[in-house]
Write a structure and sequence with these properties.
By secondary structure, the protein is mostly helical. It contains eleven helices and two strands, in the order H-H-E-E-H-H-H-H-H-H-H-H-H. Strand 1 and strand 2 form a beta hairpin. Helix 7 crosses helix 8 and helix 7 crosses helix 9. The N and C termini lie far apart (63 Å).
C-alpha cells in the first residue's frame, strides 16, 4: 500500500469521534490486540490506517453500538470468506486536524492562526511524512496505568499484575512493549490483593471469569436476537440488560448462600 494516502491513529480518532463518541485511542488499540483490525506499521512501529482499515473500524464500532454484537461474533463475521465492506477513498483535500481531537486547545489555536500560502510549504518526502506521523503519535495520551502504577495502587506485586493479565482477568490497552491498564483493572487488582491475604492466587480467580463470560455470552446472544427482531430502542435494551445482570448477581449469591448455609448471612 506504499504511496497510498493514510492516517495516523490520532487522525483516525478525529475522524470517528463525532459519530462514535465512546471511541478512544485505547479502544482502537484494544480492537487491534484482539485481531479485529490490523493496521500497517512503519519500521519504528507507528500505525498507518488506510481507507480499508478505517472502513473496517467503522463497521466494527457500528455493530457494537447499534446491534450489541460481542467481539467474538464480530470477528466471526469479519472472517467469513464472503464478507465485504464498502470502502470510501480517504479525503486528502482537507486536513484532518480540523476535526475535533484530544488536543482541542492546540487545535483551536491552529485553526485561529492565519493560513500559510500553499506554495510556502514544500511537499514532504515519504521519509519526512513518516517522521511527522511518528512525532504526532508520540504525543498521543495513553489512557491507563502502567503495570508498576497498577501494582502500587492495589498494593500488589508487579508479577501479580502480569499474572492477572496473562489469565485475562485484566486487559492491556497499551502499545506493544508499553502496556497500560484501564481504570477498571484497579478494582480487579485490589480484589486480587484481598485474595492474596487469604492465601489465594490469581489462578483461583479464573473460575469467576469463566462464570461471568458464560453469563455474558448468553445475555449477548439473547439481546442480539431481540434487537434483530426490531421494535426495541437501544436505551430500553440497555436498561433491560442492566436489570438482568443485577438479577443474575442476586441469583448467584442465593445459590452460594444455599451451598454454604447461614455462614454467608
Amino acid at each position: 500500500m506504499a504511496g497510498q494516502p493514510h492516517h495516523s491513529i490520532g487522525e483516525v480518532l478525529s475522524l470517528l469521534q463525532a459519530e462514535y463518541s465512546d471511541v478512544s485511542i485505547s479502544k482502537i488499540r484494544f480492537l487491534e490486540s484482539q485481531g479485529l483490525i490490523a493496521p500497517e506499521r512503519t519500521p519504528s512501529g507507528y500505525r498507518k490506517f488506510y481507507a480499508s482499515d478505517i472502513a473496517r473500524l467503522r463497521w466494527i464500532l457500528a455493530q457494537q453500538r447499534d446491534h450489541f454484537l460481542p467481539l467474538k461474533e464480530i470477528k466471526k463475521r469479519l472472517e467469513d470468506p464472503g464478507f465485504t465492506i464498502d470502502v470510501e477513498p480517504l479525503d486528502t483535500e482537507e486536513p484532518v486536524a480540523a476535526e475535533p481531537t484530544l488536543f482541542a486547545k492546540s487545535d483551536k489555536k491552529a485553526a485561529e492562526a492565519p493560513a500559510a500560502p500553499e506554495a510556502a510549504e514544500p511537499e514532504a518526502s515519504d521519509e519526512e511524512a513518516e517522521g511527522e506521523e511518528a512525532e504526532g503519535e508520540d504525543f498521543e495520551p495513553v489512557e491507563g496505568l502502567s503495570a508498576a502504577e497498577l501494582a502500587a495502587t492495589a498494593k500488589i506485586e508487579v508479577g501479580t499484575v502480569r499474572e492477572l493479565d496473562r489469565l485475562g482477568l485484566i486487559v492491556s490497552i497499551g502499545r506493544p512493549g508499553s502496556a497500560a491498564y484501564a481504570p477498571e483493572a484497579v478494582e480487579v487488582a485490589e480484589i486480587a490483593a484481598v485474595f492474596g491475604e487469604h492465601g489465594l492466587e490469581p489462578r483461583h480467580m479464573r473460575m469467576f471469569k469463566v462464570s461471568a463470560e458464560r453469563q455474558a455470552g448468553a445475555l449477548e446472544q439473547i439481546f442480539s436476537s431481540r434487537l434483530a427482531k426490531g421494535g426495541r430502542s437501544e436505551q430500553r435494551a440497555r436498561k433491560e440488560l442492566k436489570e438482568l445482570v443485577r438479577l443474575g448477581e442476586a441469583l448467584q449469591r442465593s445459590i452460594l448462600r444455599r451451598s454454604f448455609g447461614d455462614s454467608l448471612d
